[in-house]
Amino acid sequence: MSKVEGRKITREGIVISDKMDKTIVVRVERTTRHPLYGKVLRRGTKVKAHDEGNEANIGDRVTIVECRPLSKDKAWRMDGIVRRAQ
User: Fold this and answer.
1) Are the CB atoms for 56 and 28 separated by under 8 Å?
2) How far, in Å, CA of 39 to CA of 26, rounded?
3) Which domain holds residue 64?
4) CA distances in angstroms from 11 to 6, 15, 41, 81, listed in the order given
5) DSSP state at residue 13
6) How, if at all, do strands 40-50 and 8-17 pair?
7) Are 66 and 50 in contact (CB under 8 A)?
8) Residue 48: which CATH number?
9) What is the pLDDT of residues 2-32, one digit of tens each?
10) pTM for the full model?
11) Total domains present in the chain
12) Contact between 49 and 24 (Cβ < 8 Å)
């Protein structure tokens, strides 16, 4: 699920890694149709996001917002936790 607010894009995904300091890896899923057969495929992208307070844990569903590049790979920041992992 993605939403455009002005020029900033927000996405929702699941945290798959929190081993780095102030950084989480989020898997953002999207669905696309196969160009020939029409089957709905589920695709995912892994992005690194800034987590200032180290609040997110593995399995949490979070919203992330596009921002200026913070490092070589990191151009997203965590906006909030939607649902905690059980």
Assistant:
1) no
2) 25
3) 2-83
4) 14, 12, 19, 12
5) E
6) unpaired
7) no
8) 2.40.50.140
9) 777 677 899 999 999 999 999 999 999 999 9
10) 0.88
11) 1
12) yes
